[in-house]
Amino acid sequence: MDYVLIVAGGKGLRMGTDIPKQFLLIEGKPVLMRTLEAFYTYNQDMHIILVLPHDQQVYWKRLCEEYRFSVPHQIADGGETRFHSVRNGLALVEEAGLVGVHDGVRPFVSQEVIARCYELARTEKAVIPVIKVVETVRRLTAGGSLTVDREQYRLVQTPQVFDVELLKRAYGQAYVPSFTDDASVVEALGVPVTLTEGNRENIKITTPFDLKVAAALI
Known about the structure:
Blueprint: E1 2-7, E2 25-26, E3 29-30, H1 31-42, E4 47-52, H2 57-66, E5 74-77, H3 82-90, E6 98-103, H4 111-124, E7 126-132, E8 137-141, E9 144-148, E10 154-156, E11 160-163, H5 164-170, H6 182-187, E12 194-197, H7 208-217
Parallel strand pairs: 1-4, 1-6, 4-5, 7-12
Antiparallel strand pairs: 2-3, 6-11, 7-10, 7-11, 8-9
């Protein structure tokens, strides 16, 4: 069975709005709906689990009625941190197979990237999409800053896809602040992750500027 956990816990603070960013409209449709549609388009048999703060779930259900949104999905309660939200979502994953974890505010992940991550994970067990750094990067030091070799770095995207048993085992660990994404949780077990090419349009919508870029992409 293929699963995906769509994690959406934003509060819209960087947007400067009272509406959580996952519910903002892009060309007439909420961001989160576009994200779920991307995975449903890839595989209509995929089990989609939406991890959403409990106090946002009634609003989400109203939006689904208003927009006649019919993509099948199950809802899990969000947690104190992203780590705890993913752990809550994993509790609803009952069968062996693959599970991806994807940011709810990344609606522009390509079908090719989704397919590549899941297909690679069938053999590699832990796969994350990345893109090259195209700008000059500097590292802050005690005396100022230094230019670093950008070829040594990659920007990480989602979906991050794993063997179900592996990810459940990883999330059985105690939380530490260094767990910034699912790959870091898996690596804490001593398990390496495989990198694959992401798509540059797969932006994470967190600021008003990102909304303008998203409208242009649509």
